[in-house]
Write a structure and sequence with these properties.
By secondary structure, the protein is α+β, with helices and mostly antiparallel strands. The chain has helices spanning 12-21, 70-87, 107-123, 173-182, 192-199, 207-214, 227-238, 253-262, 267-270; strands at 45-47, 50-58, 91-102, 127-136, 140-148, 164-167, 220-222, 241-245, 279-283, 301-307, 311-315, 321-323. Helix 1 runs parallel beside helix 3, helix 2 runs parallel beside helix 3 and helix 4 (173-182) crosses helix 5. The longest helix has 18 residues, at 70-87.
Length: 332
């Protein structure tokens, strides 16, 4: 039909897609300045200079709408993807979005999800260029995110003997927040910030790009699956041993509170817990590179050293050494 007045009928799926796209940013024709390719093995792959990641968020696994608002659930999904781009030293630019609507969600919930994705992408300067939406028995968000870096990408294989090991902020907050929900303590006022962080983490999303700007060229990974796993990923990928000191770990105050007040080992939160989305990285540059930087680096903490060998060692407060195996969350 060629009549210019013809429009698609007001079907729910098309209206939902239009809700997101109409509030988004236009695609800008800006290509990466550098060309590089690499496949699996890092937080992102790289296609002709584009950093590419895909992360999914499944209802009742990654979010629950009886705990979180639709906006918090959406924000957490976006952050998990942006964190991958950041850990490679990049800035996000283009997204594809897939949504499986839970058949039980009402129109208000769907509308709030659409608005949250549109605003979340727009606020970060990300152009949404396509995707898909379906309905099923459980809700699911799936983002494919493309980003660019102004320098050489940070990779898990970049750690070298003699490097210092750093974490970009306190760890254990998200796991403490999850523990609070699972144990009926989410109303404890001293766990308010941990609960908030678990539902919708707030991170320095420019951290990786700033590391590249500062000249860091060591190994880097984001703390999504927990420190025990990520330390081992870094050590294995770089063919080195990593030795961290327990006394140096910046444990989030909420995790310390749960440990002291409820008798739970703090290691359950900072070592095994995930979804902190801090950057774990190595560099041979001095600590002074972080002093007075424009933002976000007041909480960076040196936690250990890269040495020759393999695996991960933890120096206890007593001085004893423990081999750390990957003990974090697995979906299978």
């Amino acid at each position: 039909m060629s009549d210019a007045s013809y429009h698609f009928p007001p079907l729910g799926e098309f209206k939902f897609i239009e809700q997101i796209l109409s509030q988004g940013l236009p695609l800008r024709e800006v290509s990466p300045k550098k060309r590089f390719w690499f496949g699996a093995g890092d937080d992102c792959a790289a296609f002709d200079g584009w950093l590419v990641t895909k992360d999914m968020s499944v209802e009742k696994t990654h979010f629950r709408l009886d705990w979180a608002t639709p906006e918090e659930a959406v924000e957490k999904c976006i952050v998990s993807n942006v964190s991958d781009i950041s850990s490679m030293g990049g800035t996000p630019a283009i997204a594809l979005l897939g949504i499986c609507h839970n058949k039980c969600w009402d129109k208000l919930t769907r509308d709030r999800i659409a608005k949250a994705f549109a605003e979340g992408f727009r606020r970060r300067g990300i152009a949404l260029v396509g995707g898909d939406t379906v309905a099923g028995e459980v809700g699911l968000f799936s983002i494919t995110l493309l980003g660019k870096t102004e320098g050489t990408p940070l990779r898990r294989s970049g750690a070298k003997p003699g490097d210092s090991v750093y974490v970009s902020g306190p760890v254990g907050a998200s796991a403490a927040g999850l523990w609070a929900f699972l144990n009926g303590c989410e109303k404890d006022p001293l766990l308010k910030e941990a609960v908030k962080y678990h539902l919708a983490p707030t991170i320095n999303e420019a951290a990786g790009a700033e590391l590249v700007e500062m000249g860091v060229c060591g190994g880097c990974i984001d703390l999504s699956d927990g420190m025990s796993s990520e330390l081992n990923h870094l050590a294995l990928s770089s063919c080195v041993k990593i030795r961290v000191e327990e006394k140096l770990i910046p444990v989030d105050p909420s995790a310390c509170y749960v440990a002291e007040h409820y008798g739970v080992s703090p290691r359950e939160f900072w070592l095994k817990g995930g979804e902190d989305y801090r950057l774990l990285f190595t560099t041979s540059l001095p600590d002074s590179i972080f002093y007075g930087h424009k933002r976000g680096w007041s909480q960076v903490t040196r936690i250990g050293t890269v040495i020759e060998g393999s695996g991960v060692e933890l120096v206890h407060l007593s001085g004893n050494l423990e081999i750390i195996k990957a003990e974090s969350w697995s979906h299978l």
